C-alpha cells in the first residue's frame, strides 16, 4: 500500500498538535472519487481548526484543509474520469472529512467541480475558498442590482478581500478598500483599489442608525460593528454581501438601513452552496480574474509550513493568498 504525506491534527496533553506524517490509502475517508492533490491553500477556517477555536474540527485526528485542487486518480462516480482536473471548496473537508493538506484525498464526487479550461490546479488552489467566496459576493451584488458605482471591501488585504478587489476593479467598479494595515495601501492599489480607508473608521460601535450614503454596495468579511457601519453608509437600494466574521458573530445594529434605505443584506455561504452556483462562480473566475493579479497576491509554502501559515492567517498577519504545495 503506497504511503503519502499529510498534515494531521491530533489531540495532545496540552491541546491540539498539527504534524506532518505518513498516511496510507487505509487512512482515506469514504468517497467515490480519489484525487491526487496538487495544491491546497490556507484559509481562516483552517487556522480555527488547527488552533481548536470555534469547534471547527468535529473529529480527531483529521487532515485539515477546506479546499484542494488536483487530478482524479480513480472514480466510481459517472461525472468523473481519471485525469479530470477538479477543485473542492467547503462541504465537510477539514471538518468531519479529511481535507486538502495531504497528497491524496478521497471524497464524494458531489463535492467536486470540474475545472473550466484556462484555470490550472495551481491557480484554482490559489483562488481557493477565499476567492470562491469573493466571486459569490460579486454574484450577490449583481443579483442585488449593483452593477456599477462604488463598492467597499472590508478586510481588504486578506484572501477574500484581495480577490474581491481584483474582480470588482476588472468589472468596472470603483473599489474602496478598508484595512487595518496601512502599510498595505500600495498593494491594495496595485490590485485595483481606487481608495483605501482605515479599518478604525468602521470598527467602532455605531452611534447612529444611519450615516452619510457612501457606497452602492459592499463585500464584508468582518461582521459585527463593522458590518453595522457598512450597512448604515450604504446608498439607497444598495446591497451588502456578507461572508465573514473576523470581528465577531454578532450584528449589533438596527433595522433602519433596511426600512428607510431599502438596503439588502445578502448572506454568502461557501460550505453548502449548490453545484449550479459553484459552477457559475468558477466559470466567472475563469473569465473575470486577472491571472497576473492572482499571482501577485499569492505566496507558496510546503506542507511543513502549512499549519504555521494557517495560524498567521488567523492572526491577520498574511497578505492575500497562501498556496500549499503538498508535494514540496
Helix content: 25-40%
Give the CA-based shape: globular
**Mean pLDDT value:** 95
Biggest pleated-sheet summary: 7 strands, mixed
* Secondary-structure class: alpha/beta
- CATH homologous superfamily caption of the largest domain: Medium-chain alcohol dehydrogenases, catalytic domain
Stretches where pLDDT is under 50 for at least 5 consecutive residues are none
Question: Quick one: how many beta strands?
Answer: 15
CATH topology name of the largest domain: Quinone Oxidoreductase, Chain A, domain 1
Q: Count of DSSP helices?
A: 10
Rg (CA only): 20 Å
CATH architecture classification of the largest domain: Alpha-Beta Complex
Number of domains: 2
Strand content: 25-35%
Please identify the oligomeric state: single chain
Order of helices and strands: EEEHEEEEHEHEHEHEHEHEHHEHE
CATH class term of the largest domain: Alpha Beta
Distance between the termini: 22 Å
Explain this structure.
The protein has 328 residues and is α/β, with parallel strands linked by helices. It has 2 domains: 3-114 and 297-325, Alpha-Beta Complex (Quinone Oxidoreductase, Chain A, domain 1), CATH 3.90.180.10; 129-267, NAD(P)-binding Rossmann-like Domain (Rossmann fold). The chain has helices at 44-51, 121-143, 159-170, 185-191, 200-203, 224-232, 256-260, 275-288, 291-296, 303-314; strands at residues 3-12, 15-24, 33-41, 67-75, 85-89, 104-107, 112-114, 150-153, 174-179, 193-198, 215-220, 234-242, 264-267, 298-302, 321-325. The strands form 3 sheets. Strands 3, 4, 5, 6, 7, 14 and 15 form a 7-stranded mixed β-sheet that branches. Strand 9 (174-179), helix 4 (185-191) and strand 10 (193-198) form a beta-alpha-beta unit. The longest helix is centred in the middle third of the chain and has 23 residues, at 121-143. The radius of gyration is 20 Å and the shape is globular. The mean pLDDT is 95.
